[in-house]
Fold each of these.
Amino acid sequence: ISKGPGNSKSAKSTVVPPGPPVYLDLVYIPNHSNSKNVDVEFFKRVRSSYYVVSGNDSAAEEPSRAVLDSLLEGKAQWESNMQVTLIPTHDSEVMREWYQETHEKQQDLNIMVLASSSTVVMQDESFPACKIEL
C-alpha cells in the first residue's frame, strides 16, 4: 500500500507503533530531529535519561519545534517524573525559542537542557564539549 502526500498525517503514519515503553540511557533523536520521523508516540514509548537533538538547518526545519513539543507532551504521560536531559548539538534559533517559551513546563516535567555552548578547557586549549555521566 503506498501513501500519497495527502495521507501523511494519518494515524497510520506513526513511526513508533503503540505498545509498552522501552527504557534507554541515551537516545539520538532520528533524522536531525525532523518531525516527519518523530512524534508524541515516539516519546511515550522511547523513554531515555538523555536525548541528543541534532540539526542546525532552519530551512529544513531541523531541529523541529514540533519534535521538541512532542517531547513535552510524551514525557507528561510517563508514570514517573524521572529526570531527562536534552543535549542539543547546535545552538539554533528554534532551540533557543523553545527553551525560553517552555522553560516552566520543562521544569515541571523534570527536563534539563544542556547548553550547546559548553566548553572544556585543558591546559592551553579549549573546545566545545558535552559531558554525560551515566
Amino acid sequence: KGDGHVEGEKVENPDTGLYYDEYLRQVIDVLETDKHFREKLQTADIEEIKSGKLSRELDLVSHHVRTRLDELKRQEVARLRMLIKAKMDSVQDTGIDHQALLKQFEHLNHQNPDTFEPKDLDMLIKAVSARYK
C-alpha cells in the first residue's frame, strides 16, 4: 500500500536514445521471464554485468527463453538489413561493402544471424555500456 506499484505491473522506462532501444528492451523482458537469470541479474553488480560474467548465465536459461531470444535476434538482423538496404537505395552506390556496414552495428554478432548466444548478450551489454561511459 502507498508505494503506487502493483505486483507484476510493468514500469515504463524512458527511451535510452539507442537506435536498438526496442531490441534491448525486448531482450531484457525475455531474460527476466527466466527465474534463474532474473535472480542472477538482480544480485549481479555492474562490473559483473559489464565484464560478461552475466552473459555466461545465458547457457542456463530455459529452451523457451532461448527460442524467443533467437527469434528476437532474427527480427533485429532483418531490421538492420532493411536499414542498410534503405541506405543503399538512397545513395545508389554499387560498391558498398555489406559486411562493413553490418560491423557498425556493435550490439549483436552479425556473423551468426540466427541464434542468440552468450556473445550476443555480451556485445549488447558492452554496446550499451560504451554509450553511457
Amino acid sequence: CREAYNLVRDDATEVNWVTFKYNGSTIVPGDQGVDYETFKRKCTDDVRLFGFVRFTTGDAMSKRVKFALITWIGEDVSGLQRAKTGTDKTLVKEVVQNFAKEFVISDHKELDEDYIKNELKKAGGANYDAQTE
C-alpha cells in the first residue's frame, strides 16, 4: 500500500490516483491510473474502497498540487460493512498521511472533479485566483 501511495506523491510518475480495496477483510492496493474519470468508474454501488488522488489546483499565477483521501461506500454496501469502513480508514491513514482534505462519499454526484477541486481550494488557505473588476 505504501508503494502505491508513493506513486501518487512522486512528481516523476504520471500516476494520479490509486485505490485501496478489500480482499476479504484485508486492505490491499487496488487499481491505479492517470485519468480521474477512470477512478470514478471504480466507485460502483456494490463496493467500498479508499482512493488517494492527486489534483492540480490554482490559476495562471499559482499552480499547486493537492491530495485528497476519498472513502467511497457504494449504496448497495451492507450496514455492517459500512460501519467497519470507518474503523478500517484508521489503518489506511497509517499509510496515507499527507492530504489536504478527506471525503466520505456514497453519491456519484459528489465524485464530480470540479466539486472536489473546489473543496480542496477552500481547504488550501490563501486563494490567489485572478481578480476581475
